[in-house]
Structure formats: C-alpha cells, structure tokens
Amino acid sequence: MLNLKTQKILVTGSHGFIGSYLIKNLLNKRRVPAKNLFLPTHRQYDLLERCNCDKVVTGQDIVIHAAARVGGIGYNQKHPAELFYDNLLMGIQLMESARLAGVKKFIAVGTVCAYPKFTPTPFKEKDIWNGYPEETNAPYGLAKKMLLVQAQAYRDQYGFNAIYLLPANTYGPGDDFSDDKSHVLAALIKKVSLAKNSKSPSITAWGTGQATREFLYAADAAEGIIRATELYDSNNPLNLGTGQTVSITKLLKLICKIMNYKGKIVWDKSKPDGQPRRQLDVSRAKKYLKFTARTSLESGLKQTIAWYQKTLDKNVKP
Known about the structure:
alpha/beta
C-alpha cells in the first residue's frame, strides 16, 4: 500500500468538480499535508502547452490526472473536435512529461464513455475494445481511451507505473449546472427547478427516457480513485461504480418526487438518448480495492438537490 502522506502529489483539475472531492479526501481523510499537494489552475498552467506539463510534474511523486474538458450530449455534439483534441493532447503530453520527470505513479481518470455503444451489461473491463463508442460522445470517449493505450505501452516499454480508471457518471453538490455543459442528472434537476418556480404544467426532456445510466456520487468516486492510487498497480483498466442502474424515466420521476413537482413529463424523441445502456461490473474494484460505493442514488440526489437549491436556485430565473 502506497503511503500518500509521504508523497508529493500533483492533482490536475483540482479546482474542478471531481478534483475538489479528491482534495477533500486527501486532506481530510488521508491527512496528506497541504504542503505535499500541488494544485495548479488552468489559468496558471494550460496543459495544452507541453512546457507547462513539464513544469507541473517536476518534483512530484504521484500525478492524478483528473483535468478534462467535458459536457453533456448537446455539448459533445457542438464541440466534438475540441473535446477530442484537448483531452487527447493534455493526457498524452502530461504522461510523457511525468515519465521523463521520474514520477513514481500516474493515475489516468478515464470515462465510461470509452466503452463501446453496444456492450453487454454489466460492462466488464475486458470488453472495452469490442466496438466503437456511442456516436454523440465518441470523440471524447476515444481521446480519453487513448490514455489506456499509452499507460499500457509505457508500462510495457518503460516500466512506468500508470493506471487507468473508468468511473461511472459522477454527480453531487458542486456539479456543473450550466446550460451548455451540464450532464443529464444536473440538467434534469435544473429543468425541474425552473418548471416548479414558473409553475409550468409540464417539462420536456431529451430522448425517450428508456436509456439507462449508472450514477456514482462524487465523494464515492474520489474514494475509489484515491484507493486505486494507494493499492492498484496493473495494466488492466478498472471500473469504479455502484453496479446499479436506473432508467432516465425513473431518474426524472425520482427527482420530481424529491422536489415535489407534479407536472407532466414530455419526452422529445427527436433528441438523442445517447448510449442505450450503462452499467459497470464493479467486482474487480471490490477485489483489488475493497471499494463499495456507500451513497444510494436517492440519498445522493437529495444532497445534490439541497445544494443546488441553496447555492444556485435563487440565481436562476424561470
């Protein structure tokens, strides 16, 4: 087991959604001294510039690469080239810089979007190459997937300790609720809030509602990533999730129930569903990390909704 208290740790994306939970975990749960953490911002070091990748890894023992350019289906449809280029370039350059700098361990935080569009559920890590990703987020998914290829190649040729993680869809307080970048869960919470505030008799949601998703509470995701940092050393990717799935229809009904919205739900079937099914096989995370997500979907939703209503709802005009 790697003792993180004695390591110099770089966390990219530390000021983003998942990154903020990683920092809380390291400082409060692992008791890593603040002086051992390097938490650069994008403004300070743009990782699209190779020289900045070289600078941020200098003197570090561990790199947790959580920085990413992300968004929901609509954002992916509008910005496929940028999502591909930015995520690929950041990751490839950073891992190479880390190798050259003698970093002891590199953790690449990947995405469930890397899986093929039609993958038998629950998704097993061995199935990751059995097809092309879902079209609406394929550029993003493939860019992140190349970090798995790089990690495996670097381990084989250089003996570089790089691991690749596949977290389920993450959510929680502090999530991105912006119109252009929010993912499905945050977007639905905001949609219901706006409808309730304006007393609208109905809401319109994308797709058919039949697609299924697996949601991992952000604090649980951070715990899984940190445990992998401490315990996991393999060239095989590793799923992090709950192993439980919910349809978008049931998700939206649960949100409406928690927020006490009684309006009608209308499905805009001209909009895409995205990947038809998502559910991870989490048996390897249980085996190697002794990791089991603790937060139920309903509990996580209540905490996320409460945060949204307290922090953002007052600023949202219907």
